[in-house]
Amino acid sequence: MSNSSNASMFTPLQSTLIGVGLNLCASSGEVLGIDGQKFVQMRLPQGSADTAYLTQPLWWCFFFTFVGSSFLAGVALNFVSQSIVALSASWGVVVNLVGSSVFLGEPLFKIDVAVALFVVSGVAVSISFAHVDELDYTAAELQEKMLQPAFLVCCAVDVLLMAIAIQVMSVCPQPFALRLT
After folding, report:
1. Residues 64-107: pLDDT tens digits?
2. What Cα–Cα distance (Å) separates residue 65 from each residue in 83, 114, 163, 168?
3. Residues 107, 115: Cα–Cα separation, whole Å
4. What is the C-alpha to C-alpha distance for residues 38 and 72, in angstroms, rounded to an integer?
């Protein structure tokens, strides 16, 4: 639900764009914080004490990045409803997918990319059909919105394209080469 003080300062569209932007930054920052902490822990020498990472300044920088980003996600709720914040928060899945591969050396398979594209396209369709002045909906109201023909067509096309992409990419599941080293 939009905050009334912010609603008077911004148009509904501006408020939505600000809220989604804040939340995308927050989701990215949370993933960066978690992956950064993991990166610091992976670089510790073998046999280090279980709490040795606590003495690393970089680990604390990533910790506070996570905490600040979590706070930023709460600020986003002053601009848009929880339903839009929840949708745009799934951006963190995509950031984690790429970040884990690039910074932590975890393998990134074509199927992972297909699923990430599915998440992004689903979020884009859902946000584009949300009204900027929406409140939290009841189940009946959500059902009514989800049964709109344009929404159903977009969902069907999205699922069809993702099914094709998953089928094509699963035939050849080699990892991509997304390493910084």
Report:
1. 998 898 888 888 878 877 767 777 677 777 777 877 887 778 77
2. 24, 29, 36, 38
3. 15
4. 22
